[in-house]
Design brief:
Radius of gyration: 21 Å
Structural class: alpha/beta
CATH topology of the largest domain: Aspartate Aminotransferase, domain 2
Largest sheet: 7 strands, mixed
Oligomer: single chain
Bound molecules: pyridoxal-5'-phosphate
Shape: globular
Number of strands: 12
Strand content: 5-15%
Helix content: 25-40%
CATH class of the largest domain: Alpha Beta
């Protein structure tokens, strides 16, 4: 009775993620003596690099005053300087300074702040299918309208489809590379193509279209593949990112927003982002981690276990007859569901004590998402299940 219509819709939409979580818990209760393999969540089991915890402990024991007070809404200069240096090191042309960076509560907080800052009611946000499951909610939070754009059969940006989707109400293109759930990394040529398209559309419609790059997996890429920066290609671009994955700090809610120095009205836009941080009630990003970040250098989680998991799972899927795009980054695989029905496949997997997420959760029925942010031994124990499922569905 008290719940708004908007949240009733959110509850309905979330049903698959909730259902998989409930099913996983129920399975564990039904089979207390059996091992359940839950590959549904992107919540890394690995610990943060030792320097993160050591720096936290050092600071907490140092007697330094003010570690837990309110901070400026934009964040500590020294934390923003770390982010500016990180972005400049990745980019050929950006040369961003700390005044165009704001620390945030994770990438999720960052995207909400950006959308609050940019959207008028009815403005459209383009997102590629499959998409990170929370995007539609984030967009609806600010009365934006979601415009879904299909990708190519290998989940790459489809310029012709984007051209069709762009219209005078288009305000934001929200992209994610390395991608959850597909693992695809957008190349320099693809970003260049997107940039040219957006610049042309902006001229046609008489207003700029913002490119928002959601990139919490930037540092998780395999085989030396480059993850180009949007700042090198498009002036009106924003980076929303976090340390949830590359420092394994998902629960600490720590991330940032950066505005390209070439963005129209960059300084004033940053002022508006800072105000959004306040009026949305986030106030400031977690204080302790803002003090810790400048001391971390280029420390990050080891990528080898992820690479090993990607290789063993991908090989197993391929040799068992599944069709799957090889992930270039992030820690998910997104194969076609044998038989074409993702729900039927998910149910069959549950009978083998394996928990996956149906592709329809990401706007892409007929696929399933497998998360591999787990210990390699845990992943190896699931290989036989994937091959048994392949036989059951007649592809193995
Ligand atoms: C693509 C993508 N964007 C944003 C987020 C949210 O990240 P954070 O935990 O930093 O809010 C996630 C988390 O899984 C994600 O996969």
């Amino acid at each position: 009775m008290f719940i708004s219509d908007k949240l009733v819709a959110v509850l309905g939409d979330n049903s698959w993620i909730r259902k998989m979580y409930d099913r996983s818990c129920a399975l564990q209760r039904e089979k207390p003596y059996e091992k359940i393999y839950d590959l549904s969540l992107g919540n890394p089991v690995f610990e943060p690099p030792p320097i993160v915890v050591a720096t936290m402990v050092k600071l907490l024991q140092s007697g330094k005053k003010g570690l837990h007070r309110y901070l400026p809404n934009q964040g500590l200069v020294m934390a923003r300087e770390w982010v500016a240096a990180f972005i400049n090191q990745r980019s050929r042309a950006a040369s961003i300074t700390s005044d165009l960076v704001m620390m945030s509560g994770g990438a999720g907080g960052a995207i909400n702040i950006v959308l609050n800052t940019l959207l008028n009611p009815g403005d459209e946000v383009l997102i590629f299918q499959p998409y990170f499951v929370e995007y539609t909610h984030y967009i609806h939070n600010f009365a934006g309208v979601v415009r879904f754009v299909p990708t190519t059969p290998t989940f790459r940006p489809d310029l012709a489809a984007i051209e069709v989707a762009l219209n005078p109400r288009s305000k934001v293109l929200l992209i994610n590379s390395p991608n959850n759930p597909t693992g695809v990394v957008y190349s320099a040529e693809e970003l260049q193509g997107l940039a040219e398209l957006l610049l042309r559309a902006g001229r046609r419609f008489g207003h700029e279209i913002a490119l928002v790059s959601d990139e919490p997996y930037t540092r998780i890429a395999y085989d030396g593949v480059a993850v180009p920066s949007v700042f090198d290609f498009y002036p009106h671009s924003f980076i929303a990112s976090s340390f949830s994955k590359d420092l394994a700090l998902a629960g600490e809610r720590f991330g940032y927003i950066a505005v390209s120095p070439h963005c129209a009205d960059a300084q004033r836009t940053m002022e508006a982002l800072v105000s959004s941080q306040r009026v949305l009630g986030f106030v400031n990003a977690p204080s302790l981690l803002q003090h810790v970040l400048p001391e971390l250098g280029d420390a990050m989680v080891a990528i080898e276990p992820y690479q090993q998991n990607r290789d063993t799972l991908y090989q197993q899927l391929l040799s068992s007859g599944y069709r799957c795009v090889k992930p270039q980054g992030a820690f998910y695989l997104f194969p076609e569901a044998p038989g074409g029905d993702d729900l039927a496949f998910i149910e069959a997997a549950l009978r083998h004590n394996l928990v996956l997420v149906p592709g329809r959760t990401f706007g892409c029925p007929g696929h399933v998402r497998i998360s591999f942010c787990f210990e390699p031994a845990y992943i190896e124990a699931t290989l036989g299940i994937f091959s048994r499922l392949a036989h059951e569905f007649g592809i193995g």
